[in-house]
Amino acid sequence: MTNSAPILFPSLLLLFILLPISTSEYTIGVNYGTVADNLPPPSQVAQFLKLKTTIDRIKLFDANPDILNAFSNTNISITVSALNSDILQLSKLPAAQSWIANYIVPFYPQTKINRIVVGNEIVAASDKNLNAHLLLAMKSLHTALQLVNITDIQVSTPHSLGILASSEPPSQGRFRRGFDRAIFSPMLKFLQETKSPFMINPYPYFGFLPKTLNYALFKPNLGVYDRRTKKTYTNMFDAMLDAVHSAMKRLGYGDVEIVVAETGWPSVGESNQPEVNLENAVTYNGNLVKHVNSGIGTPLMPKRKFETFVFSLFDENLKPGLTEERNFGLFRSDLSPVYDIGIMRDGRVSDERTLEL
Ligand SMILES: *[C@@H]1O[C@H](CO)[C@@H](O)[C@H](O)[C@H]1NC(C)=O
Ligand SMILES: *[C@@H]1O[C@H](CO)[C@@H](O)[C@H](O)[C@H]1NC(C)=O
Fold first, then answer.
1. DSSP one-letter code for 184
2. How many domains does the chain fold into?
3. For an engineered disulfide with 262, which of 154, 201, 279, 314 has Cβ 3.0 to 4.6 Å away?
4. CA 77, 83, 88, 93 torsion: positive or negative?
5. Which domain holds residue 161?
């Protein structure tokens, strides 16, 4: 023992010096879904996120007043949602004014609400009536905000990638016929004029095949070459963003900002889903957070940053469907991490599953 001590000592010292440096901290947004009966009260969640994590923005699937209240003075930015079922009403200005009076004015600006999203994945669901009212609702809410002199809350709506007719190669991305000029041209014009982002929910998890698993997980792979642009894609996330960008650019709106409203990978699945496991969830979300914080951008949008919201903050035990649906969370209901992706403030969590990037 005594003989080895002088050798051991310097290496231990090195370890202590390196540890805080190797604990990278990234900022990220999370979707705060609440389809569960075991979640901590919003005030506890707000304090936890503020004090223990580097999460600096959340997205709600509703405009829950208890949550909006709990996040006052936390400096955490909040995207609130108007429900799909409210869209028809909200297309009329008086209803939009009441909605703003009920769900925004009482909380703003102590609660840092910075965006309202109208519905979720409406366009690709192809309900003609809702699609005809969606932009009207967005415009009414924007006008209602102006009427109460609120000028720093954006209005947008998140889309699934089902809005695209083609996405491969990324340079050939285009919106579905019938959606492009009728829905997306006027919507993108509104977003451009109001300096608001186009929002998408890209999920490589729902798009990979066994042979493209590494490509979906941002792991080393041969890449996918787009011969039209001579760009090589090393991950599916970039390819999805660039396909959307190509579709937007085709309509003349390549400069509108893109926000990733949802993306993620479940950590538990059914026994016949070998690609659903903790390791792949850590790999996808960890590499995602690193990638979107890097400032590298994508092959067609170099150096652009994409505000990104991981799905989801919590495992939600009341979600119907496959096991995976209840296991997209970064945290359990007792606030312990399911796994860490470099977003804990107090350095590394004592969990052997901590990600080594
Ligand atoms: C609030 O957050 C913003 C980033 O969203 C940051 O620039 C600012 O310094 C923060 N303010 C406080 C008081 O922490
Ligand atoms: C909005 O601002 C204008 C100009 O400063 C002011 O006349 C008006 O009363 C304000 N409206 C509200 C609802 O605060």
1. I
2. 1
3. 201
4. negative
5. 10-60+157-204+236-355
